[in-house]
């Protein structure tokens, strides 16, 4: 073929192709709609429909396709079906759709697994986002990907998204979320509201952002956002920035948190926290990868004022909460609900019982692990104590349902208290509890609140020392104490006791009247020892002796923690003569909520004191080797031994 003729043919062919392409652009390539939908269906692994009309309007925009420079689509309805395991309802339905897809993005899509769209504009959008208990999600592009793969990319990404009105139904079984979300995206940014249930509790949320980029694309620069969330009884307000919606990556900002209890705040977060007084906190919050970080700059728990730094890591088989809890003050009363004491006005306990009967939430102990260092400047124990614990240090650990408070170092009243407490909640039917505590140098006149008149000595003073070993089982504080087994030993070196109290305990009217007229004074305690055995919740004094220069006081009987009843008998053996001394023992009986004092029935003049004193002092010899010598304890040991010949 001659060159001129060939050129003419090529020119004619180009003109025909150009005319055909122009015709196709003019008509909107309607014959390509079905092949395009089929191609998208193959790529996405689910059915894609393109229609000229919408579901609700027969006169909606016609279906048009443009191929010049990029793939452009105008459709009355774009529908993407759900995954093969649940094709209905559709994952996405958009009406009044305008879509732009660059050829470069279409080419890159083959190996990325996520389709990037330059533009998606819709008058209305409806999305059904599901995730079942096995971790399969309707937004997952590759059904073969592991359900728990944190790097799973979303189905679509957008450079520009405009939406007049959007409705999203989110049902996420692993997160226990069932919510309806309404949103709009325009030049002013993103506005969204949500209502539903989260962990079977009411959920309300609103979110605003000046740009929608983090919500529609990954890897963008972080942009501002504000969030208001109400989940159950928890309220959260957040203002900060976000880089990527998927996994809330790059989240950083300030928060304010409120709730009627720490437990109410932990429930929506899936974090095991104790029941407490009302709580509010503010600080900084961040999330990257599988780790949440929280700086608690200020926290108010009832009257307590706390601060801390925490990390919540969900990468392991069980989430781990680690960090540090500190603060200026912690009021023990604010933790009352933790051990079963309700907040608010105290209700009259049933049957006159006073030990907390509120059951522990044992299953929650296995929801996560924890390792938190405690460093508090002050712990206020309540009105009965004149001085707080200051400071207080320890380590709180939760491992596979076993809660341990170890390394306790509590300083108060010039003394210290240390030890370890364990609550084993692996058996949901009952917890196993064990306590090992020791204390020394506790100045009773400084520690206990003893209201006396001006110039009057405290009722009791001295440096209290001792140790406690207890174990028990149950589902509440009352049950643990009702089953308690163990031993408590206490002694008071360099102790002193009110002279008036000793004479009154001995029912010595003459001596009591004399002390009252001339003024009370403090008698040195030559021997002050208590050895208590606990079996099945019954506390029995093996030895309970207070010895002064005037009298020896001892006690026997028992205290039942199971029945919450007292049956104690106090006796005094005076060392001097008094014409009005009554030798009848003093009985303390009745429920813990209302104990009664009375004189033991029988002839008051009966002199049974020597025999009773003999029985009380016999076990003393076995207790003396257990008393640590030092700080006056050696002198007390000698004084206690001096009592033994009287036995």
Task: Describe this structure as you would to a colleague.
It is a single chain. By secondary structure, the protein is of the alpha+beta class. Among the domains are: 139 residues, no CATH class; 214 residues, no CATH class. Helices cover 17% and strands 44% of the residues. It contains twelve helices and 35 strands. It has a 30-stranded mixed sheet that branches. Strands 25-28-29 form a three-stranded antiparallel sheet. The longest helix is centred in the N-terminal third of the chain and has 25 residues. The radius of gyration is 39 Å and the shape is rod-shaped.
Key traits:
17% helix, alpha+beta, 30-stranded mixed beta sheet
Q: Briefly, what is this?
A:
By secondary structure, this protein is α+β, with helices and mostly antiparallel strands.
């Amino acid at each position: 073929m001659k060159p001129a003729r060939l050129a003419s043919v090529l020119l004619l062919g180009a003109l025909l192709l150009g005319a055909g392409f122009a015709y196709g652009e003019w008509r909107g390539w309607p014959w390509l709609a079905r092949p395009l939908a089929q191609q998208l269906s193959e790529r996405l692994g689910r059915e894609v429909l393109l229609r000229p009309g919408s579901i609700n309007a027969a006169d909606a925009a016609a279906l048009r396709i443009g191929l010049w420079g990029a793939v452009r689509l105008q459709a009355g309805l774009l529908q993407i079906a759900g995954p093969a395991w649940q094709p209905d309802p559709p994952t996405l339905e958009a009406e009044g759709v305008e879509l732009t897809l660059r050829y470069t993005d279409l080419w890159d899509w083959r190996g990325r697994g996520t389709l990037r769209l330059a533009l998606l504009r819709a008058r209305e959008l409806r999305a059904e986002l599901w995730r079942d208990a096995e971790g399969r999600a309707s937004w997952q592009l590759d059904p073969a990907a592991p359900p728990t793969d944190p790097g799973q990319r979303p189905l679509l990404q957008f450079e520009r998204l405009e939406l007049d009105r959007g409705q999203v139904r989110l049902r996420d079984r692993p997160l226990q979320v069932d919510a309806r979300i309404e949103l709009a995206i325009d030049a002013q940014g993103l506005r969204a509201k949500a209502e539903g249930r989260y962990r079977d509790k009411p959920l309300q949320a609103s979110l605003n952002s000046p740009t929608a980029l983090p919500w529609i694309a990954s890897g963008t620069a972080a942009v501002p956002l504000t969030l208001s969330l109400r989940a159950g009884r928890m309220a959260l307000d957040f203002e900060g920035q976000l880089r990527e919606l998927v996994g809330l990556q790059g989240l950083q900002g300030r928060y304010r948190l409120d709730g009627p209890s720490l437990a109410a705040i932990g429930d929506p977060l899936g974090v095991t926290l104790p029941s407490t007084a009302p709580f509010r906190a503010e600080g900084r919050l961040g999330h990257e990868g599988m780790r949440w970080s929280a700086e608690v700059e200020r926290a108010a728990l009832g009257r307590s004022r706390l601060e801390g730094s925490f990390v919540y890591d969900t990468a392991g088989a069980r989430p781990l909460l680690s960090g540090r809890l500190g603060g200026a003050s912690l009021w023990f009363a604010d933790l009352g609900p933790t051990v079963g004491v309700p907040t608010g006005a105290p209700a009259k306990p049933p049957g006159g019982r006073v030990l907390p009967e509120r059951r522990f939430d044992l299953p929650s102990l296995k929801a996560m692990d924890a390792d938190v260092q405690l460093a508090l400047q002050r712990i206020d124990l309540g009105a009965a104590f004149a001085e707080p614990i200051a400071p207080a240090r320890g380590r709180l650990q939760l491992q596979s349902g076993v809660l341990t408070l170890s390394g306790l170092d509590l300083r108060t009243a010039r003394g210290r208290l240390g030890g370890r407490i364990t609550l084993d909640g692996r058996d949901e039917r009952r917890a196993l509890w064990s306590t090992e505590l020791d204390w020394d140098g506790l100045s009773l006149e400084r520690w206990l609140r003893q209201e006396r008149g001006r110039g009057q000595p405290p009722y009791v003073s001295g440096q209290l020392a001792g140790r406690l070993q207890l174990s028990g089982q149950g589902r509440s504080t009352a049950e643990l104490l009702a089953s308690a087994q163990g031993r408590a030993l206490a002694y008071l070196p360099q102790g002193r006791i009110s002279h008036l109290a000793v004479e009154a305990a001995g029912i010595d009217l003459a001596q009591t009247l004399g002390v009252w007229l001339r003024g009370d004074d403090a008698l040195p305690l030559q021997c002050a020892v208590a050895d208590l055995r606990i079996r099945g919740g019954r506390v029995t004094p093996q030895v309970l002796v207070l010895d002064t220069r005037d009298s020896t006081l001892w006690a026997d009987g028992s205290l039942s923690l199971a029945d919450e009843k007292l049956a104690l008998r106090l006796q005094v053996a005076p060392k001097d003569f008094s014409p009005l001394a009554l030798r009848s023992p003093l009985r303390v009986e009745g429920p813990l909520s209302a104990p009664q004092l009375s004189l033991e029935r029988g002839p008051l003049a009966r002199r049974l004191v020597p025999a009773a004193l003999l029985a009380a002092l016999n076990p003393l010899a076995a207790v003396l080797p257990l008393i640590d010598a030092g700080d006056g304890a050696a002198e007390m040991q000698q004084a206690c031994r001096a009592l033994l010949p009287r036995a």
